[in-house]
Amino acid sequence: MPEALSRIEKELRRAVENQRYAEVQRLVLSFCEAAEAHARALPPADLRIGEIAAMTQEVLLWTRTMVQSARESVVLQLRQIPRAQRYIPALTAIPANLRLDV
Fold first, then answer.
1. Is the residue at 91 inside a domain?
2. What SS3 state is found at 43?
3. In whole angstroms, what is the distance from residue 79 CA to residue 84 CA?
């Protein structure tokens, strides 16, 4: 596997794990462009083209699965907010003690 693809894949996986989605989007595009450039540089019958395609599919599938599960986790957390709010006392209005005479 080319060094550039390995580097981008590591960065992409790190971004997904840290839920930095803008960076994930940028790195997915970079990864696909690098994979395409490397595949186009090889002779048409080269077996490495299939390896690059399989690796690209695996990375993209992993990325999609991880992003979907992170989003589902956020949805579950958001659904818990109304239940948690029942146990938080309502804030009472604090009377203003400051007066300004001009």
1. no
2. coil
3. 10
Nearest-angstrom CA–CA distance, 6 and 3: 5
Q: Does residue 53 fall inside a structural domain?
A: yes
With a CB cutoff of 8 Å and minimum separation 6, the contacts of 56 are 31, 32, 35
The model's pLDDT over 21-42, given as tens digits with 9 standing for 90+, comes to 999 999 999 999 999 999 999 9
- Predicted TM-score (pTM) of the model is 0.75
Q: Three-class SS string for 51-102?
A: HHHHHHHHHHHHHHHHHHHHHHHHHHHHHHHHHHHCCCCCCCCCCCCCCCCC
